[in-house]
Amino acid sequence: MSVENVLKTIKDNAIEWVDFRFVDLSGRAHHISLPAKEVDEETFVNGVAFDGSSIPGFRGIEESDMVMMPDPDAAYVDPFTAHPTLNIMCNIYTPDGERYERDPRSIAAKAEEFLQASGVGTTAFFAPESEFFIFDDVRYESTMNSSSFYVDSEEAAWNTNRKEEGGNLGFKVGVKGGYVPVAPVDTQQDIRSEMCRLLEEVGLRVERHHHEVATAGQAEINFRFDTLKKTADNLLVYKYIVHNTARQYGKVATFMPKPLFGDNGSGMHVHQSIFNGDTPLFYEKGAYANLSEMALHYIGGILYHAPALLALTNPSTNSFKRLVPGYEAPVNLVFSKGNRSAAIRIPVAAVTPKGCRIEFRTPDSTANPYLAFSAMLMAGLDGIKRKINPVELGYGPMDKNIYELSDDQKAQIRSVPGTLDEALDALKADYEFLLEGDVFTKEFIDNFIELKRGEAKAVAIRIHPHEYGLYFDC
What we know:
Strand content: 15-25%
Number of helices: 13
CATH architecture of the largest domain: 2-Layer Sandwich
Keywords: ATP-binding, Cytoplasm, Ligase, Magnesium, Metal-binding, Nucleotide-binding, Phosphoprotein
Distance between the termini: 66 Å
InterPro entries: Gln_synt_N (IPR008147), Gln_synt_N_sf (IPR036651), Gln_synth/guanido_kin_cat_dom (IPR014746), Gln_synth_cat_dom (IPR008146), Gln_synth_gly_rich_site (IPR027303), Gln_synth_I (IPR004809), Gln_synth_N_conserv_site (IPR027302)
Oligomer: single chain
Subunit structure: Oligomer of 12 subunits arranged in the form of two hexagons.
Largest sheet: 10 strands, mixed
Number of strands: 17
Helix content: 25-40%
Radius of gyration: 23 Å
Order of helices and strands: HEEHEEEHEEEHEEEHEEEHHEEEHHHHHH
Protein name: Glutamine synthetase
Pfam family, one: Gln-synt_C
Structural class: alpha+beta
């Protein structure tokens, strides 16, 4: 959409407010709203000022002035506001007009530029499967003398004997029993359909929705793949619509990877491929899973750099509560066709040459998508550049259920880091591939590690309720 078309949209839709948005290092959106009558062509030239010192990991108070530069290609009419509002995603610049090196969206743009300059291909396509839970109640606290959380759902397995419903109607979802049941077991068909309606209303192409494996309202909606930066934009829109639609239904949605103990967590499986113009580069008919040599090297790059990648694709302490064996969690650094216990799965059902792709199953939605997608692309391109062969390195293919292997066989398979601190250690030791083409900078990586170390420490020093059960009677 051109600036002219954005201004026309404002006029045609009687827009009263224009909401300028940017994303922080953790992937959370922030916004400032201007009266629509104050927005003109100059706004897209001069941008909108904001205080960068108030955003964690951005700027010190002595250099706080920053500028949002609106991207007219990332605008849509907000479906929730009472006053007609147009939302526009922005890039971040310094006051002297330089692209801000810590702006995640600018990093995504640089990753796309690096791909084109590399000569490997022209476009990388991404498609995330971002799972989430819909709860009816959520409460938590962490104080000096108390620590607890509580979530509830009308369809949860623990509510088969709940009396507060005024007559329990049964049909609860069992633990690990939630994969695609019909109503009345699936109570959330309409809310997911409304989410999809709104997603299509703002321009996303929805492919399907369904209930996911876990009890208590786990869900998944898939939207159409797109280019790296555009898909990251779409994922922020997706989360915004999921969160606010749930709110309208008197419920709450969360993309937290592991909100429940003892059942499956929520991942963000990321499908990806590279094209040269209209030509897919990951397809070779008759090869293993119809994968080209380039695709194998791309896989090799991701699996080789995976411990470091996880600091960006799984950047929360809660991420590693999901990455444990036994819950369909992709903790094994191998690739396979159709095997969901591998970190990288190659979809083979009903796949065309243009649909040939890899699926990195380890990431989750605490990731900032601009950073995570960029890092995955850089790892894959490094694999192509260095011709990293995943077979020669023992990364597969593994077409067996890994969880059913013997202990000796499992010991031969590399696993993901066990904690956020371990992933950050891996990133500190292996980051050079991210610096190619100045996509990431050493300063950015150091700052990111410091920010996430603070989160890990904040969790580590706090007393866990389960410790009372283990140690209170010592």
